[in-house]
Amino acid sequence: YTGNPPVVTDYWNMLVSRYGKIDPSGCIKRIDYEYVDAAFLIENIEAAFTAWHRAPSFLEKEFDLFLEYILPYRAGSEKPEPHRLRLMEEFSHLLDSCKSVEEIIQQFHLELRWKRNFRESDLLWSYPLHLPVSKVELGKRGACHHLTNYTVNVMCSVGLPVTTDFAIWGNRNNSHAWNVLLLDKDNFSPFDALGNTRIELQYKPAKVFRQTYKNGIAINREIEDGPNHFLLQNDNYLDVTHLYCTAYDVKIPDAGFNGQEDTPLFICTFDNRNWQPVHSGELRGDTLCFENMAADIVYRVAGWVNHEILPVTEPFLLTEKGELSFFTPDLNKTTTLHLKRKYPRFYRNEQHAWGMRRANAEVSDDREFRDSLVLFSIYETPQGVTDSVVHCLQRYCYVRLNSSTYQHANFALVEFYGKKRKITRK
How far is CA 154 from CA 92, 134, 146, 212, 231, in A? Predict the structure, then answer.
């Protein structure tokens, strides 16, 4: 199952109501060399070399991969902990019988998901910071960025060059992170943390970045009071968009941009509600330039002006051939559209619909629903708008959809109708 026991959700809601949501921009940055001592580093280096030499012989032993993806003592921005020797002792046996990359991924899947019971948590999407290894092991829950970070620490501890790739979606809101096992400088095998097969992306990425510690790029410039949703925790990322999809450099000449030369520029995609930055660019002469952008995505260029994201261009489609097709509205030519869905029925929507099975619609006069009546139950996976016949002989104050254990009641709207009209609250 995916989700959280009710007690976890209750405690989370209590903490948020008491202290508010976590704002990464308010966190204090601590520099490692100010408090990591030599003994910690020496132990990590020696253990890293030992694990690397013990790794399966069918994997390439490239020293550059070792330096970049095995030697680091942490995977992201989590607090460093002396965990490498312990993790190497606990997990090294998983490699004893492996004869292929696929078997390695399968072994760690079985160990973490089924033997140690780690699970994904939608709730922890609201916790944007990386968790240290000890905290992930204590809770056995995490959003994708927590679980990929933990998986990197675990697999690197046994000499495997593993890191994290993450995508910013171009046809959906939010983003997603997964792990990659580097086979050599040109080949890699991507997989979801806790997953057991090669990953297949469910949405179209606008950008894909890889966590590194050197030779990376700064995704965005240091911008005082910049758009917080675009400020990332680490500037050392490698742009690998072209390894997952067709990508082009976007160049827009004569864009008519009349801002200052130092005005931060972003290329944006549209999420559920707003244009959100996915990458930064620059003005070269009179040409707006953005590198390595995924094709078949609708973008819009914007500037960061007076603490606001302001459009610079009309929206445009970057076609599969690398051409720019701008959408300029003509208010004299309008039509009427009847939209049945905001998005295609992605696999994620199927999961939401599947999670509604065994849910009950209940009514009660008690807001805690200690004494309730079941109006109807959902036994089959809903397909769009569905209805149910309700037999209710009296009025009630409260109504709820009570989802099954560890599932969310992911529905958009519920309405009740009598014989002649819709029933509304009075």
Answer: 10, 12, 12, 17, 27
CA–CA dist 184, 65 (Å, integer): 8
pLDDT tens string 326-341? 998 888 999 998 887 7
Q: Could you tell me how far CA 77 lies from the centroid of its own chain?
A: 16
Tell me the residue ranges of DSSP E strands in 100-187.
119-120, 141-142, 162-169, 175-182
Residue 246: DSSP 8-state:
-
In the predicted structure, residue 232 carries a pLDDT above the cut 90: no
* Residue pLDDT, tens place only, 192-215: 999 999 998 989 999 999 998 875
Q: How far is CA 382 from CA 270, 338, 341, 352, in A?
A: 28, 21, 14, 10
Tallying the residues shown for the chain, one arrives at 426
Query: Is the CA virtual torsion 189, 191, 197, 203 positive or negative?
Result: negative
Residues 344, 241, 77, 54, Cα dihedral to 10° = 110
What gap in Å lies between CA 393 and CA 309, rounded to an integer? Answer: 54
Query: Residue 372 in 3-state DSSP?
Result: strand
